[in-house]
Structures are given as structure tokens and as C-alpha cells.
Description:
The protein is α+β, with helices and mostly antiparallel strands. The protein has three domains: 6-60 and 157-178, Arc Repressor Mutant, subunit A, CATH 1.10.10.10; 64-142, Arc Repressor Mutant, subunit A (Orthogonal Bundle); 221-476, BirA Bifunctional Protein, domain 2 (2-Layer Sandwich), CATH 3.30.930.10. 36% of the residues lie in helices and 22% in strands. The strands form four sheets. Strands 7, 11, 12, 13, 14, 15, 16 and 17 form an eight-stranded mixed beta sheet that branches. The longest helix has 15 residues, at 219-233. L-phenylalanine binds at residues 318, 357-359, 397, 422.
Amino acid sequence: MADLTLNEKRLLVALAPLGEAGTGALAGALGTTEAAVVQYAHLCADSGLAEVVRTTTTTYALTPEGEDYRKNGLPERQMLENVGDSAPMRDLQAHPLSRIGIGWLRKKGWITIRAGVAERVGEVPPGDDEIALQDPKEGMPGIADLLKRNLITASEETAWQIRITAAGRALVDAGLDLTEETGTLTREQIISGSWRTANLRRYSLATPPKRIWPGKTHPYGGVLDDVRRILLEMGFEEMRGEIVQSAFWDFDALFQPQDHPAREMQDTFYLDLAEPCPPGWEGVRDIHEHGGDTSSTGWGGRWDPAKAEQCVLRTHTTPLSIRHLVATRRPPVKAFALGRVYRREAIDPTHLPEFEQLEGIVMDEDVTFRDLLGYLKEFYAAMGFDAVRFRPGYFPYTEPSVEPEVRVDGLGWVELGGAGVFREEVTAPWGIEAPVLAWGLGISRLAMLRLGLRDLRQLYRSDIDWIRDHPVIGREE
Ligand SMILES: N[C@@H](Cc1ccccc1)C(=O)O
């Protein structure tokens, strides 16, 4: 048998002469709380030395309204007194309790109403509810109705009765060692050396301890923290911006033509909201219509400010980049944004309608396309992806454009977003002259690979077991 603690032994010794007792009596005998007695009793029960019987009793208390009716009768009873054999409804309606009483008089069938006159239906003996109201006790048939009418409230009380078993009694009869025992050594015991003679409680190395689940960062949150830390260490400052952006910033300022398929309703979440174009919008219009003062010919046709004013859930984080550039205008700029973006995607293991992007821009007098590739490689290396390659890509706002890919064991080359050097059509309307390197990388997909997941949806599911069992990611690693 497992070693008993001193508390269990003392409980058995107190219980043996009584055979059976409530927690109150035992708490008194042991000089402890009833909660502690219940705990010791359950431990004894685990070893078959005691039985614990739990009973719950419900008691009822009258609400102030219930108290009033207990003295004066339920409203329908009080009103019935006034009805006599019959009374005009008008009189009943004038009664102070009419709002509650008339309904119940009819519901209980105590009166019938004919041609504006209420007639009493003979003698009405006290109902179950009226009997229970006098002294509500568990099990009375009228209780449910009184609870429904808020005339009484219920409260549950739990009590434990503890009984010693034959095995428990045999143990007590054989004699139990009740010397004080030490469970945890204190600093004083160690310093004074009294631990040498202490009666140490034995414990079993075979018993698994209770698992605890301390709070920790969500694995995906950990990856995002990591990304942020890497960018800060690379000397970038963080840009922040709204999730709701006007199409002007999400598309037009990025030289995305107004008839571009990505702007369609089925690809983008449009909001029933409009925002006026910012000062300087005419430059963007000119670029779209004929290329403004640049060597570009623009997209041609008419640029419609109403389309640009429509608000969308940002489809990428690039509007934050252009807005930051417009606010800064002069080099040097090294900034990043880490944020959620929204697209009308059908949900499958590698596509979700919302996901995170890592946006970055570098503006300086002499930065080049090669610097861009260097920044991307450096970032991916810091994230633990050493094999990076670049495929030519296309975006309306960059030239040249690339799509970086990283190699993942078992998956091959995985495409992770886009990058390039901002076109003149994007920078010229704002008088920006220095070259701007820009990228927007899918971070959810990267996180999925980093966390060894095969399904993007897992990142956003509240799968408590996965979250609990996953090692801590990021800063705390
Ligand atoms: N915004 C692009 C990525 C990108 C950003 C910046 C420059 C070039 C490409 C996307 O969402 O896919």
C-alpha cells in the first residue's frame, strides 16, 4: 500500500471511534478546514481505507416579492377575493396587481370572462405553488413554478459524509505512527542540520506528477515575434497601418490599373465605405491616364476617382509601404510591416482568406536590385532557410520583379511572395527620386513550414492540444 501522509493517518485515527462522520466534526477534531478533510478523505478513499459520500441539498429563499406574497397571498389570490362571484373587468383592471394578477387568474382557470365581466369558477383551494410558498422545501411540486416566477431562489449545498472501511479500521487497530513528518525541507532545516533527524515523507518516483500547462506564446505568435526581431536586428523600423484601406492606396497608388482582375469583387473584400483621395491624387490620375511627366505612357483611358475612394480590407501590406514613402519622401528609409491581409480565397490546406505578410522597403540613393536579393537572402537565412532562389515575377508596381522561393525538405521549392524595385509610375507622382526596393512575403506559409505543419489552417485553429504540446518558439526559445 502507498505510504499514508500524516494527515491521512490522523483522519483515520479520528474517524475510527465514530465509524462515520461529517466534515464539520472531523475538521473540529483535526483542527483543520472542512475542505482539507475532504481532500484527506479522498486520499484515504483512493487507498480503500474510507468511503466518501457526497450529498447535495437544495435550499430555497424567498425573494422580496415572494416574501410579500407569502404574507398577502399571490396576486391572483388577492384579486380573486375582490372579484366576489363576478365583477366587471374594468374593476379588475383598476386593481394595483392587475398586470400580474389577471393573466394568472385566467391561466389558472379561476375566472372566465364573458362580455367584459369576470366570473369566478367556484371554490379554489390553495395550489401547489401557494403551499410551497409558505415554506419552500426540496421536492415540493410547487417549487418549479415559484422559481419561474422569481418568487424564490435556489442554492445548492454539498456535504460529505466519511465512513471508515474494514481495511481502514484494521490499519488503525494495528497502530499508526503519528510522528510529525516533513514533506518539503525548509531552508532553516537545511541550515540547522535538523533535516538529519526529520521524519521525511516517502514519495514514489513511479507516480507521474500532475501535468501543468503554463501560459506561453502561441507557436505562430512566436514565429511572428521572431520575424519582427530579425527585421529590427537588420536595422529596420516598423510601420503600422490600418486594415481598412482605400483602393487608392491598396491599388491605384501602386499603379494597379482600375480594370485589373485582382481588383474585382470576387478577389477583394470591398466595404460599404469610401474615403476621399489624399492631396496629390492628381499625380496618380495623370500617371494612370498618360504617364504624367515620366517616360511612361500610363494605362490610357479615364481614371475614375470614385473607384479609388472605395474602401477594401487590405489585400496586401504594400499600401503601408507607399503611404510611408509618401510621408517620408527622402532617403534613407528602411522599414517593415508585419500584418494581416485579406483575399477572397477558397479555403484549402494552403490557402486562407486571411494571412500574414511581411512587407519591407529600402530607399537609398544607390541601392540596387542586387541589394534587394541580399536582403531577402539574409532574412531567409535568419529564419533558417539557407537555400533561396529567385524566379522572375510580375507586379504592376515593380520592375524588375522577382518571386523568391525557399527549398524545404520533402516539399521542394516553395514560393513565398514577391519583390522588386518600385516603378517610376509609383514613386514619381510623389516626387520620390531615390530607388526603392520592396517586398511582400507570405509569412503564414513560412510559419507553417517552420512549425512543421502541412496545413495552413492549423495556424489559426484553437487546437489546445497542439498549442500545449508545441515547444515554445521565438524569443523564449
Ligand atoms: N504585394 C505583393 C508582393 C510584393 C510586394 C512588394 C513588391 C513586390 C511584390 C503581393 O501581395 O503578392
